[in-house]
Specification:
It is a single chain. By secondary structure, the chain is mostly beta strands. It folds into 2 domains: about 15-75, no CATH class; about 80-140, no CATH class. The chain has no helices and 12 strands. The strands form 3 sheets. Strands 1-7-5-3-4 form a 5-stranded antiparallel β-sheet, with no helix packed on it. A 5-stranded mixed β-barrel has the order 8-10-9-11-12.
């Protein structure tokens, strides 16, 4: 195929927020979310097989009473967010720069211990308190979301 010989419109769309069709579930704002084997958005959970991490839910959408694909949800694909430290994970300054794994849709950990499926969701960049006053970590999701 020949190289361009004139301007080409590639329909650029900034990839910071993308809308995904959700499964027949309720997803909450701030949740780590991924697509399942059918391609529909679900909450990240280490006990669920074949998920691909896509980002963080930017809103709450309830499709529990509908069919998969009936509703869409806007997902943040980059940036850093604060998540709860999973039970058994006590964040320390030495953890900065380590990759984190999803335990639930709002809990992360640096170890793979106890995880049925190991889904990397970002890099730990700071120790912070969650919005619910628990031990938390700021996670940068850039380059981890699909």
């Amino acid at each position: 195929m020949a190289a361009l010989t004139q301007a080409y419109e590639n329909f650029e769309r900034p990839g910071l927020v993308v809308a995904y069709k959700i499964s027949n579930v309720k997803l909450y704002k701030g949740a780590l979310v991924g697509v399942n084997a059918s391609g529909f958005l679900v909450a990240m959970a280490h006990g669920t097989a074949n998920l691909k991490f896509v980002g963080v839910a930017g809103e709450t959408v309830d499709n529990a009473g509908g069919s998969a694909g009936d509703k869409t949800l806007n997902v943040a694909k980059s940036g850093s967010m604060v998540f709860k430290a999973a039970s058994g994970f006590t964040p320390a300054i030495a953890d900065l720069g380590k990759e984190v794994y999803a335990n639930t849709d709002w809990e992360v950990q640096v170890s793979t211990a106890g995880l049925t499926n190991q889904y990397k969701v970002g890099t730990l960049v700071a120790l912070e308190t969650t919005s619910t006053d628990g031990a938390g970590v700021r996670v940068r999701i850039d380059n981890y979301s699909l």
